[in-house]
Amino acid sequence: MPTPSSPPARQVRHANNTLRTSSSSNNSFSRVSPLTTLSLIIAVAWLGMITRLSPASSSNLRVMPSSSSSQQYQQQSAQDRLSGSVIAERYASLHGQTSLVIEKRPHIGGNCYDYIDNDTNIRVSLYGAHLFHTKNEKVWDYVQQFGEWVGYEHKVLGMVEGKHVPIPVNIDTVNTLFGLSIQTEEEMDEWLRKEQVTLKDENGIVREAANSEEVALTRVGQRLYEWIFKPYTWKQWAKYPSELGPEVLSRIPVRNNHDGRYFSDPHQALPKNGYTSLFENMLASPKITVLTDTDFFEVRDKIKCKRLYYTGPIDTYFSDLGWPKLEYRSLSFERVVQRDTPGYFQPAAVVNHPQSHDVDGKEVDYTRIVEYKHMLEQKSDHTIYYIERSTDDGEPYYPVPNVENKELFKRYQEMAEKEEGVTFVGRLANYKYFNMDDAILNALELFDKDTKDLSKR
């Protein structure tokens, strides 16, 4: 099975023996239009002919040649991102039904796409780190089918007030930042109680948090909120926590012990041969045909199908309505190769930089730095890291959950419910953040629901 290699990039060598590449998620390599990104569908009983075809990224995938005549498919998948790949695989494996996978990018795997960097021989991800974790046994059993997994418990540090501290907040975070010597869970609970803010309504009755600022204040209090949560949220979302729904910061735990792991799920692992290999194995069935570098929206008039599974942005699907677009945040990645570095650039795979300025007053405009060499204990005489920045421009990564967007999404959702023969699946189609295991579980459950009649035959 061929190993994906580094994408071509414009490189500039610096005097400090580093190699920097400025690349964003809408660069020439990904060749993705903002209006047509992430448009995955799966169509049952597809009838028609695709005239714009190109090879997939792996030799073990079945690829339709450009000279192909009209063929019939029972499923179709346009852009094979995680949710759609799961559904296509299930139809092929359990019911022997054919699928057509259409991917706008020149590679499979969506944002999970990874490859071996040519300069360092280190496996990196093109679109940011993806850490698999789950407590769901059904999901864990499912992903085991497509490759070997290696246990990996992700740990994140934050650079706060010039010090590396564990994120999420735990005893060591508090001791380091405030010069304390908390030892037990009871002592940490007592410290948190003194810091936490109690919310009350106009009648003096304790109430729940209405936004992410209130979530943070009720969990960690004013000081940690100002140092970590408030500035990081602004960098990530270009909005303060008070402007975002409570679900944004509710996802981040606060620990009353020394546990430095980012996740606490019983299953935490990385695919030994990378996520791209995992997708290749998911899509390897002869019942599945893969088209890369093909835009569904440019060929949709040539496609007739019984059912579509659409996982792209829901507002893109209904763009002909002329309604306002939903708001998303994107990411840009600055690639840095540091040569002659048998060790590491930083003390953890991911170091968050929540504050807007460092202790010397220098502006810090990035959210985090990811050094992939830490993952799977990779060996190299060099190292490579990516400096991540959040932006409004580029591919849609994160739905922005404020009141205005939620209300607009409801309007799109009402239109989606009227769309005959189309199922909207995945985070962009549902305008909701999904962890990887959530996306897989959602796709598995949707498949089970849609094929219950097939299973009875």
What integer value in Å does the Rg equal?
Answer: 23 Å
Number of helices: 12
Roughly how many Å apart are the termini?
Answer: 37 Å
- Helix/sheet category: alpha+beta
Low-confidence stretches: 8-60, 63-70, 76-80
Helix content: 25-40%
Instruction: Tell how many strands the DSSP assignment holds.
Output: 23
| Largest sheet composition | 9 strands, mixed
Shape label: globular
What value does the average pLDDT take?
84
Percent of sequence in beta strands: 15-25%
Describe this structure in words.
By secondary structure, this protein is α+β, with helices and mostly antiparallel strands. It has 12 helices and 23 strands. The chain has helices spanning 82-95, 137-143, 171-178, 185-195, 212-237, 247-250, 274-282, 296-299, 314-317, 403-418, 436-450, 452-456; strands spanning 12-13, 18-24, 43-44, 46-48, 71-73, 75-78, 99-102, 114-116, 123-125, 132-134, 149-151, 156-160, 163-167, 267-271, 288-291, 303-304, 307-310, 328-338, 350-352, 368-371, 383-391, 398-399, 422-424. The strands form 6 sheets. Strands 1, 2, 12, 13, 18, 19, 20, 21 and 22 form a 9-stranded mixed β-sheet that branches. Strands 3-17-23 form a 3-stranded mixed β-sheet, with no helix packed on it. β6 (75-78), α1 and β7 form a beta-alpha-beta unit.
